């Protein structure tokens, strides 16, 4: 579990630099330039994410189960994940109604993903992982709200409702791919096994 906690601290800490130590980020951008800082941050993000996946895999099954969710919770989780994937896709498309109403659809997707997995998993390592991601997304949302008030960022401006349709269609296809193959391939567990 210590390895999992360390990996979470590294991954989430890296992604909270702007929130916790904004002067460090600015200093790194001044020293390296924005493209180089972006590349370094991106590479570190991938490395810490891979470390996080490894640490979670190592912790899996070592600590038993704190609770066994009822079978019907799996149906709620699958439905919430459909919504999360649609929000995720909307966050990468030009603004439709979904993106403009949610303001930060990627953070909404992370919160829904984490919450739905907290509902469905009673293992201590899962609770630590998904609880940490939920807390991280909440902190980022608070930070984004502050940055919005300070004028550092702007809300997306509505472009067309067709992007909502694209988000739903691509989201459903991606959700189905995750549900029927990708989750088992990447995580080793089928979400359809209840």
Automatic annotation (TrEMBL):
Membrane topology annotation: Multi-pass membrane protein
Main subcellular location: membrane
Residue span, NnrU domain: 3-191
Keywords: Membrane, Transmembrane, Transmembrane helix
Subcellular location: Membrane
Pfam families given in the database record: NnrU
GO cellular component terms attached to this protein's record: membrane
Ranges that cross the membrane: 6-24, 36-56, 76-95, 102-120, 126-144, 165-183
The name this protein goes by in its record: Putative membrane protein
């Amino acid at each position: 579990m210590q390895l999992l906690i360390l990996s979470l601290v590294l991954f989430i800490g890296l992604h909270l630099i702007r929130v916790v130590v904004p002067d460090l980020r600015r200093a790194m951008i001044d020293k390296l330039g924005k493209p180089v800082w972006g590349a370094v941050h991106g590479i570190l993000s991938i490395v810490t994410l891979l470390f996080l996946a490894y640490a979670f895999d190592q912790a899996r099954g070592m600590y038993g189960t704190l609770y066994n969710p009822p079978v019907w919770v799996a149906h709620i989780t699958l439905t919430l994940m459909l919504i999360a994937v649609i929000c995720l896709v909307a966050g990468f498309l030009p603004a439709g109604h979904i993106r403009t109403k949610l303001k930060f659809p990627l953070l909404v997707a992370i919160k829904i993903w984490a919450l739905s997995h907290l509902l469905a998993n009673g293992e201590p390592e899962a609770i630590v992982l998904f609880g940490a991601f939920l807390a991280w997304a909440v902190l980022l949302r608070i930070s984004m709200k502050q940055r919005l008030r300070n004028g550092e960022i702007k809300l997306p401006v509505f472009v067309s409702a067709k992007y909502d349709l694209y988000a739903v269609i691509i989201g459903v296809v991606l959700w189905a791919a995750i549900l029927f193959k990708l989750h088992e391939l990447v995580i080793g567990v089928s979400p359809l096994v209840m």
